[in-house]
Design a protein that fits this description.
alpha+beta; 8 helices; disordered C terminus
Amino acid sequence: MNHGPRTFLVAVLACCVAALGGAAQASAACPNADTLPTAENLPEIRAALVCLHNEARARARVAPLSRAGRLERAASRHATDMVEDGYFGHDTPSGIDPFDRMRRTGYLGRRIVWNAGETIAWGSGAYATPQAVIDAWMDSTSQRLTLLAPDFRDIGIGIALGAPVERDPNASPAVTYTVDYGWRTTARALRSCLRRAGERRGRQRRVMRAKCHGLNAKPRRALAL
């Protein structure tokens, strides 16, 4: 069950990132924002990406995202799969889509009301840093809308070293990213919330119903990661 999954975003290719006019300046508030990913620093890169997301969301006055282990597993598997199998897209060659991956990790399931989305990107050299990827997404209208969507509360970052396409062996090292976003609650909790909202009138009812669906509310922690 869901209440309108967000449309998946078009992917950001390395050539598109490069066309933005050079590497971006690192965020002063987010450590490692301009750090190139390596096998040794992937936890720091993930933290930088979450920080950059929440920095952008704070400027847009929407709630921050919290890391969700199940979303992170889904995103990580997809990033790795794209590099290993040599394709670039939200769906695998066998037809597995982001929702399937989220179900397989248990983020989505029976009696869960949810909304979810995904962004993917790959870049090389200076265009593979967290800051460069975030800037590319923010410069794309559809991707920016998903990154700043007020109805998402959870985030999972997947990073794989390498490119999802064939490249010149002498090319700069590449990095492939998958970011999964989501919001979820139980069907029972949603019904209860909507019932309470129905007892109000006018603007109070509208505000409460929005909160029931994850809008204009603090991150929910009722469900285990």
